[in-house]
Amino acid sequence: MNTLLAVDGSDNSYAAVHALQYFARAEQLTLLHALDVRRPAYPMVPPEVAGVHNTTLDQSVREDGERLLDRVQSLLPMHAGPSTKQLRIGFPAEVIVWMAKEQKADLIVMGARVMGAQGLGPVKEWLLGSVSHRILTQAPCATLIVNGPVKAMKQILLPLQGPSDAEAAIRFLQLKPFHDAVEVTLLTVLPSTGPPRPGDAAAAAAATEKLEEQAAFIDGVAERLRAIGYQAHGVAVTGTPAGMILQEATTLRSDLILMGTRGRQGITRFVLGSVAHAVLHKMPCPVLAFH
């Protein structure tokens, strides 16, 4: 598995480095630090003086970046795999996505960045997005977002919306991404439509039949995961998808939420969001998104 570790020196970034100990040895591990160098304007300063100042600034930022990459490399777990360091200039989300495509990465690992700009209205917040949001919508591979210290990677919650999500999850898990054995709880959420009217036996029977169908679907996926070496079992519930995912993750004390990002594309996805994005705003543990 080819892994891209994007770092920026934040606490969550170092937590992402630490999280690598729970993942299998990478065939190729790329350590990336993207430098978003924005040169200040000096309207009252002669161009040659401003040029010298910008050159000094660029050199200082590059040296800081090199030191960060050296430190990250020194903190890698013993089984992390062969690593290379990459220092690139540009907007972080664009650089990370480009590098993931260039390296044919199977997994991007990064610390959570601010999910929305404080003080903005909800539409502007979703429209502007963040580094994490942009990467989730544009990355060519699975992406792990680490939001704090990772103490274990044993209990995995895998919400599934349907067969396409299941197939994508199985493809990713076939890569054997985890270092140690994990237990996977598969979750399917049926939208809550409220209790049937008293005496409406047909509606009650239909709701029960739908829940049983989803339970059978989840059990089938769990069986396929067991066939490739995972401990897996399924749960079918009713409610709001994002709310139930967060509730189950908290109840089960999940170490990781593994979920698909399928849904709206393009600008509507930033504005309207998705279940995956809603979970990211309140995630109680790291989220690994596949597609």
Summarize the structure.
The protein has helices at 11-19, 47-75, 92-102, 122-128, 131-138, 163-173, 201-227, 241-251, 267-272, 275-282; strands spanning 2-6, 28-35, 83-89, 107-111, 142-146, 155-159, 183-190, 231-238, 256-260, 287-290.
Describe the overall structure.
This protein is an alpha/beta fold and 291 residues long. The chain has two domains: 1-150, Rossmann fold, CATH 3.40.50.620; 151-291, Rossmann fold (3-Layer(aba) Sandwich). It is built from ten helices and ten strands. The protein has a ten-stranded mixed sheet with strand order 3-2-1-4-5-10-9-6-7-8, with helices on both faces.
Please describe the structure with a list of short key phrases separated by commas or semicolons:
single chain; 291 residues; alpha/beta; Rossmann fold; 2 domains; ten-stranded mixed sheet; 10 helices; elongated
